[in-house]
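Predict structure. Chain length: 125.
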Amino acid sequence: QVQLVESGGGLVQAGGSLRLSCAASGRTFSSYAMGWFRQAPGKEREFVAAIRWSIGSTYYADSVKGRFTISRDNAKNTVYLQMNSLKPEDTAVYYCGSSSYYRGSYYATKSYDLWGQGTQVTVSS
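Prediction complete.
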């Protein structure tokens, strides 16, 4: 079975940067798209960014455009989320997900069928 493991979270001051990683491990890995989502306490999981695995097209939530960058390393089966100019509002558990095929939206949690366990990002003011 393929598993997704997030890493790179931590505590950072406002304006700082972090890079999250999501590594896929297993016998065979294939994905239509990989996405980053986040969930703050008491809130629903929300879309952050997504990338088409094969062609590299990227998609971002308005709240992170210009600050976050999603990328992938095909050889390592890993996706990254470079987070710059972090704000306290970015504090959340960040999850990566994989979609096996296009389900109509890159932005919906329902479009993803495999998830990692998450990594905590805390931004202090």
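Summary: The radius of gyration is 13 Å.
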